Amino acid sequence: MPYSKYNFRPGINREGTDYSNEGGWYDANLVRFRQGRPEKIGGWEKETQNTYLGTARALHSWVDLNSTRFLGIGTTWKYYVLEGIGFNDITPIRKTSTDSITFAATDGSSTLTVTDTSHGALPNDFVTISGAVTLGGLVTAAVLNQEYQIATTPTANTYTIVAKDTDGDTVTANSSDSGNGGSGVDGVYQINVGLDEYVSGSGWGAGAWGAGTFGSVSPLGASSQLRLWSHDNFGADLLMNVRGGGVYYWDSSAGTNTRAVALEDLSGAYKAPTVALQVLVSEKDRHVICLGADEISGGNRTSVVSPLFVCWSDQESAADWEPISSNSAGSITLSSGSEIVGGLSSREETLIWTDSSLYSMQFIGPPYTFGVNLINQGVGLVGPKAAVNSPLGVFWMDQKGFYVYNGSLAPVSCSVHHYVFSDFNVGQAFKVFGFLNKQFNEVGWFYPSEDTTEIDRYVVYNYQEQVWSYGQLARYAWIDQDVNAYPRATYANSLYTHEIGNDDDGSPMDNVYLESSDFDIDDGEFFSSVSNIIPDVKFTGNGGSDQTINFVMKSRNFPGESLSTNTTQTVTSTTTKLNTRIRARQAVFRVESDDDGSTGTRTGVGWRLGDTRLDVRPDGRR
């Protein structure tokens, strides 16, 4: 009997059973489909060995007038601008205390109690201390006069820090540390940090650990909620906003050693928003837009988020926000939904999602400046970062499915819909991050699975070939190649470059696999035997002739039976045939990384699968 060729349909399909999807792929990890063929995804490596503080959930890249490349990085604790390989802290300042700080140390303890009346700080906030003198012992002036992260905030007038030297090593006070630091101690406080988890309401458990007293209630605000930044460039400069908090401006010409300032503190600022849910810039007409901003009442901003309120500045100005007849500033309140979830500037329009609707906001000129149209009711946005621009339109995820808008709205048919939404932590949906990987015609979403509070999965859609895949990979933010040659993503205090090489930051990329649905051997009516496998694999990595993967064959006689693994064999570029012995009605074919091989055969491995052939022979009815 001749060899049988097995060419499975591209894409993963989990909407039926593993037998009903015969001829297709059923499970995968770290595998994509390109031009109808499966292949291992590209590798990643740290862009710099430098790290940042906090969890980064926002990235924005741009170039200034001197062709300097910047990357804005918003984390739970700080905001950085990457220039070259250095993370430059431009976090705005909330408060400056002058000649008002004192210290108290305890012999044998590294904890210092700091007194500063009405400090307004929260645990994990950052303060830079200057002007202090030694406490008399090991807690010297050099120990005190530096940036500290606040440990606890027992009262409105006191907080604690852990003494450290200039290398970051803990310093323990001795009996001579009886001073208070002197009468000229200053403190510069950065804006309050945010949380690393989404909180659905106030009460016990809301807010930072160590803040307030036992049983106290925390009203939800920017500092007691998942910290999400939005940002956009205004010319060569940068606008940024803490969701539910302040709006800030950074002047790139002043250099990366300067900090962002509140929008209302800009020179010439008038009636600028003081809080918002998101800031963005209208590309075509260069208006700054604030979603969910505070309204003007009695001639002043209220400093309270208005969840459906949209306002914009005068054209070509980030400072002038008063809506008068001589400028183009203005505002509108949306009517559908309970709050604005997110917005995205796309070609010729700005899209705005509430929790239940989609609006299109288009520049129409004076006297109204913008026209706002309701596109759809009943489809929202699962999280502020869940929409992504692509060459074929804007794709996004809501709590029920995936959608695309390119002048009209349409659902995107998803062959892994049940797999994603049946194992999705809806309570942490605001962490979902949509991404574009234009080189491979992909849009996708990083999301947290049901049993975890943090992102650990991704689902990806090839919009040209209309096929889906998924896998396990934790990335908290992503930006596609633009001013940089490769996509970049964040994870564990590091910035990674993606689609470079074949490995996991110099280590083997393990747990790569692709598994077919059950397929009948012959026609499934008779038992059949498989005695040989002829692999068809193109190795594309930089590991040379040492590249290896495993071919695995599993089988069973009935869909209700458990699969039995019949053979696992190594395949290299010179493998011509694999000998095996399988007797069954139906089988499963799996390709996987050689995780138990030596490191030399596991790094630099890239592969693309062709047509696998099996030597199948009839072997009776029983």
Describe the structure.
With 622 residues, the protein is mainly β. Helix content is 2%, strand content 40%. The strands form 14 sheets. Strands 2, 42, 43, 46, 47 and 49 form a six-stranded antiparallel sheet that branches. The chain has a four-stranded antiparallel sheet with strand order 1-51-44-48, with no helix packed on it. A hairpin with a 2-residue loop joins strand 40 and strand 41. The longest helix has 5 residues, at 417-421. It is globular and about 95 Å long. The two termini are 20 Å apart.
Task: Give a concise summary.
The protein is mostly beta strands and 622 residues long. Among the domains are: 4-30 and 509-618, Jelly Rolls (Sandwich), CATH 2.60.120; 93-190, Beta Barrel (Elongation Factor Tu (Ef-tu), domain 3); 383-501, no CATH class.
CATH class of the domain at 4-30 and 509-618: Mainly Beta
Structural class category: mainly beta
How many H/I helices?
3
CATH topology group of the domain at 4-30 and 509-618:
Jelly Rolls
- CATH arch. level architecture of the domain at 4-30 and 509-618: Sandwich
Strand count, sense and barrel status of the largest sheet are: 6 strands, antiparallel
Molecular shape:
globular
Strand content: 35-45%
Low-confidence stretches: 202-219
Helical content band: under 10%
Number-wise, the strands total 51
Average pLDDT reading: 93
Q: What is the alpha-carbon Rg in Å?
A: 29 Å
Q: Measure the end-to-end span.
A: 20 Å
